[in-house]
Specification:
Pfam families: Thioredoxin. It comes from Candidatus Thermofonsia Clade 3 bacterium. Keywords: Disulfide bond, Electron transport, Redox-active center, Transport. This protein has 108 residues and is an alpha/beta fold. It has a single domain, classed as Glutaredoxin. It contains 4 helices and 5 strands. The chain is globular, with a radius of gyration of 12 Å.
C-alpha cells in the first residue's frame, strides 16, 4: 500500500524536483478544514496509483519556504509535477474524479 510521503523544505528538491516521473504534492496545514476533507482522497489516489504516481504532503506551517517558492497562497493546494516541473495546480477542495481528470493525462 502506497502512502503519501512526508515532504519538507529539506527533502523537497530531492523527492520532487529531481525525481523522474509524476509527483502529486498536497500543500496543507493541520488547522485547515478543507485540507482534512481532501486528505482521504489524496491517500486513495496514492494507493490506487502506486507505481505510476508518487504522492507527497507538505505542511505549509512547518515548511513555509517551499510553499512560498511555489506561490501557495491558499490551502489545500495540490501541484502535480512531471519530471520535476509543475504541470497542474488545483486550489481548494475537489472531489476525487475532478482531481483524477487533471492527473490522468500525465500518467501515461
Amino acid at each position: 500500500m502506497a502512502k503519501p510521503v512526508v515532504l519538507t523544505d529539506t527533502n523537497f528538491e530531492e523527492m520532487v524536483e529531481k525525481r523522474k516521473g509524476v509527483v502529486l504534492v498536497d500543500f496543507w496545514a493541520e488547522w485547515c478544514g478543507p485540507c482534512k476533507m481532501i486528505a482521504p482522497i489524496v491517500e486513495q489516489i496514492a494507493e490506487e496509483n502506486a507505481g505510476k504516481l508518487t504522492v507527497g504532503k507538505l505542511d505549509v506551517d512547518a515548511n513555509g519556504e517551499t510553499a512560498m517558492r511555489f506561490g501557495v497562497m491558499s490551502i489545500p493546494t495540490l501541484i502535480l509535477f512531471k519530471n520535476g516541473e509543475p504541470v497542474e495546480r488545483l486550489v481548494g477542495y475537489r472531489p476525487k474524479e475532478q482531481l483524477m481528470a487533471k492527473i490522468r493525462p500525465h500518467l501515461s
